Amino acid sequence: MTSSAHKHHHHLQNPYGTTAAPPPTPSAQPNLLSTSEAADALSCLLHRLPPTLSLSLPTRRSSPPTTTPLISLSDTPETLQSNLLSASSKLGFFQLTNHSIPSQLAESAESDALSLFNLSHDEKQLHFPKNWPLGYDNAADDDDDEEESTSSGESLFCLDSTCFSESTELNLTSLREFTAQMEKLGLELVEELSCAFGFDNPARQDPTKVCSLMWISEGNSSDDRPALSGRMYPYVVGLQYQIRCQKYSMLTDSGWTSASPNLESVLVTLGDIAQVWSNGKIKKVRGRPIPNLAGANNSRCVLLTLFITLPMDSTVSPLLPKLDGGNGDESNAEDDDNSAKEERIFNPFSLEDYAWRIYHERLHSKDPLVRYRV
Fold first, then answer.
1. What is the mean predicted confidence (pLDDT) over 323-333?
2. Considering all CA atoms of the chain, what is the largest pairwise distance in Å, rounded to the nearest integer?
3. Can you list the domains of the chain with their CATH numbers?
4. What is the pLDDT of residues 202-212, one digit of tens each?
5. Which residues contact 274 (CB under 8 A, 6 or more apart)?
């Protein structure tokens, strides 16, 4: 079954050819990790701590609740671009309205997702074998526990754009259609962002330069500030359809903030790849928005998040056309002498190395992009 999964997911293949990926090798790129040896040593130590151990992070001063900007796809191109520039450069998130995704489809997709969590632990692993980042992942399995548990972390499925499963018995028709429509919307947003901020959109010339992942997670929260145990993965934009009114907490570049998107809108978060592509002009949200379930009648939460991201073998770097080479690169001789060149603030880095690190460290107290700043 694993070889079948590899064949079906060629753009996200595990380069190590096994279901359990080994630790990443150090990056061969110069001057990227020279100042981070101590941080890496601490990270390795933390990986060996029992998963049930709660890490107490320093108390952070949260930002006050922020009104979530509302952006309509029916606005004129000029208005849409202006609103995207404002929300993306100031906050890193907004809610999208007047999109084409029907609420009935979103509700049906949620039902399909709930059926996955009703499977037994063995069935989840059988139908969705782990082929990182794809497949079923339960944090309790990292410690070789015999029984499934959500106390030590969330349980999630990571699926590609086809929502492929080893089983032909599962009916995921609505989930597949919903994923396809969310992917289309996400790619449209990436193009709009590239026009607004002036960076090159890799998918414009070659659609295989980007891909999408559907993350389906289940967790519980018992207080107003959610636990910092969720898995993270690098992305350009993240999209969550609002089936019901719900409050979220998000860790942005400015600290913790909350958002309460409108019913049937799509909550859009901008990720670390978008920030690098724009050379720091776009603010980001670290990881996924976390629903606040305190006081809710049903504490069970299933969250569907569509990520527009990159194939595993990609290199992430600023994509603005008029950047100073910075590392000895030659400037484009055809550029106007009067055209001001922008200084590069991020070094290029391997997506695979970066994705593995932030997925497994689960430490949100430090911006993971710091080590790649020039």
1. 54
2. 66
3. 71-142+152-321+341-372 (2.60.120.330)
4. 999 899 999 99
5. 88, 193, 235, 236, 237, 282, 284
